Fold this sequence. Notes:
The protein contains 10 helices and 12 strands. It is an alpha/beta fold. The radius of gyration is 18 Å and the shape is globular.
Amino acid sequence: MSLLAARDLAFGYPGREIGRGIDLAVAGGEVLALLGPNGGGKTTLLKTLLGLLAPLGGTVAVAGRPLAALSARQRARAMAYVPQSAASPFAFTARAVVLMGRSAHAGLLAAPSRADRAAADAALARLGVLHLAERPVTRLSGGERQLVLIARALAQEPRLVILDEPTASLDFGNQGKVMREIARLRADGLGVVFTTHDPNQAARYADRALLLRGGTRLAEGPVAEVLEPSRLQGLYGAPVELVRDARSGASAFLPG
């Protein structure tokens, strides 16, 4: 059974449809990458899958149950959301931010238990940022904040993690940390959905890809079938070249 499934989904805002006709499914231990240009509807689609926006048509199901039938706490136990990293106006400590993820289990206003604190510290340690636990997030770099947000998602103990451009504005080293964590989530049996502008990230770390332009699905399927130059050219409206190294066999997509 799929952890997340959408059928003939129409999404957008009241009075303004962004896209329609979206079919997708994500199983445990599977990674789905959403690719598309800015303004193509990726973030709006994610918010609809999470239940933050109501579908304009079609259905969304979580582990076989209609998303609309789940309470906010049930959704939080099933799915965790990692938004794009942004500066916080509040000087919460990194540990306090991660403990917010435990509200799916203890309630928003409940005092954190010893088990909650242990889960938060374990998530911080897994991301290699436990030493930042008492530092205000206002004093963290963009990469450090993004790792803390992923730790918050892990502290929820979800079955599915949804990440919106998780490497946006990160330096090369922190991009690698985030993408390796996505690979670890898959290895742990979680389902993962992430958006990206980089087809090379999708080719290396995802099992399936969905190409979205102007709210329209251009293609969806295994990355080896979907990610090819002509489709990517249609997606981004620009030349794309697949470059292969003759000695190693490694390949990469580059702007033409």
